[in-house]
Amino acid sequence: MSLLVVGTVAFDAIETPFGKTDKIVGGAASYIALASSYFTKNIHLVSVIGDDFPESFLNTLKKEGVNLDGLEIKKGEKSFFWSGKYHNDLNSRDTLITELNVLADFKPIVPPAAKEVEFLMLGNLAPAVQMSVINQMTKRPKLIVLDTMNFWMDIAMDELMKVIAVIDVLTINDAEARQLSGEYSLVKAAQKILKMGPKTLVIKKGEHGALLFHADEVFFAPALPLEEVYDPTGAGDSFAGGFIGYLAKTKDISFENMKNAIIFGSALASFTVEKFGTERLIGLSQKDVEERVQEFVDLVQFDIALY
Amino acid sequence: MSLLVVGTVAFDAIETPFGKTDKIVGGAASYIALASSYFTKNIHLVSVIGDDFPESFLNTLKKEGVNLDGLEIKKGEKSFFWSGKYHNDLNSRDTLITELNVLADFKPIVPPAAKEVEFLMLGNLAPAVQMSVINQMTKRPKLIVLDTMNFWMDIAMDELMKVIAVIDVLTINDAEARQLSGEYSLVKAAQKILKMGPKTLVIKKGEHGALLFHADEVFFAPALPLEEVYDPTGAGDSFAGGFIGYLAKTKDISFENMKNAIIFGSALASFTVEKFGTERLIGLSQKDVEERVQEFVDLVQFDIALY
């Protein structure tokens, strides 16, 4: 089924305890589109870049089935740039540089062919920008998934609440779930957030896995214990891309199938963190992905005989 | 099968964001013995208390099948007392008071009837004290499980390494696994620790579940997302008690069965944290435990159709 991905396509410069990079390709929509391309080749991308962006990466996206008609390229301007340094535990980071550049006045325009997609993935952006995308759809998508972050809770809570009210699935991390709800218990936080609009909530806990809440049900997907995590950048976006890509492929948005989608999302994220940037997320085989999913099955599968 | 539990039986005074207690019954061996009593009634306890300890709690233990022949009661002396205050996230705490009292010169004496038990659970104590128990066994137990903590890594690493070398299963938390191995990655940490002696390693991650490592295999058990966690005290000990109790009941120490044991241990721990102290761990029905285990099954069960 058709999928529209909206978010940043950008440059990152990343430092982790394992090394540092110069400017490399990043951005939420880059990770989301790559991850979802393992499941569907009917992907539209809406984003904005400057004319400094490498043609090679755009060709990679095209090759993977990503339609770039909605990618605005601003002549004479520079792409969004973020630089950050991760702490030793990789669970926290400091932002060193944020150059909005083309993102400063980004007004996404959804191309006609993408206005009736069945799946819409709104990567982390200003809530008003996310809302403007929803408003351009001529047919309500079957599923709208939205990712956001604490930054927007700090400075644009009213707009965030408005867009959260009209989506289907919200993906945030545990600290953000606590901030949004004012509840420390994630179970209580989820109960409150599900009353704000979304029918389903995904709470991402990084190396501690992810929780999926829907009505009174909850599902937990672990993160794979990895020998090396080089760079967590893009893990959440790869997760979201795998999640919505799997749903778009299987055309089944039931809670039961969302469990599977969470596992596939976690599998894609587990590749992303093994190298810097998008490198590991490009060129995986179907077998690679299936084997990784099997590792998740093995990790949590048990066979209790109740006594 | 027969089980020997060695550890503290003590008083705690606990403050959490949800309230505080006066002196209540605590101690590693109290939680371990209670949790394991849901699986076997052939339990020996070796510990030491003063004459200030409530008879009613000792009667509870007896009623649950715990043989107290190895419980030394020192006349005119006071029981071990610990007081602590948990931070808002419940993941860290400050120790306010530690009064060793009878524990200061604790020399455990294993009663004759307990010297040939098949399962030995060494709760957190000085490594030399744990070793003295192993040395008193006239027959090597089928399984020795040892719990320890960072404190002993700081002040008695040599003795800790000696006792770790002769046990079967080590249970520590994630920070302790990192300290013991010098590796941040838990996978690498486990590889190193498994070379120190134990055939199996359990890494407890509190609200983030537990990892079971054995040879090249790994299993993950989540913690149940709970609406309220009142008091984490004793969760790790309840986990250990459920773990070894289930193994003693089923008489199967294979990796496959240890997965089940981890789930039962997690289930017992999930009860403990719902109230202060040992309160919630007393008087559960078999149905209570089975229903809780079913919640774990529901939490992680998925049925992936590989595409």
Summarize this structure as a short list of keywords or feature phrases:
homodimer; 307 residues; alpha/beta; UDP-N-acetylmuramoyl-L-alanine:D-glutamate ligase; 9-stranded mixed β-sheet; 14 strands
What does this molecule look like?
2 copies of one chain form a homodimer. Helices cover 35% and strands 24% of the residues of chain A. Chain A is an alpha/beta fold. The first copy, chain A, has a single domain (3-300), classed as Ribokinase (UDP-N-acetylmuramoyl-L-alanine:D-glutamate ligase, 3-Layer(aba) Sandwich), CATH 3.40.1190.20. A 9-stranded mixed β-sheet of chain A has the order 6-5-1-9-10-11-12-13-14, sandwiched between helices. In chain A, helix 2 links the parallel strand 5 (43-50) and strand 6 (66-74). In chain A, helix 1 runs parallel beside helix 8 and helix 8 (235-250) crosses helix 9 (255-272). The termini of chain A are far apart. The interface between A and B is large, with 43 and 43 residues.
Mind sketching the topology for me?
2 copies of one chain form a homodimer.
Chain A: E1 3-6, E2 10-16, E3 19-20, E4 24-26, H1 28-36, E5 43-50, H2 55-63, E6 66-74, E7 81-86, E8 93-99, E9 119-122, H3 127-136, E10 143-147, H4 150-155, H5 157-164, E11 169-173, H6 174-181, H7 186-194, E12 200-204, E13 210-214, E14 217-221, H8 235-250, H9 255-272, H10 286-300
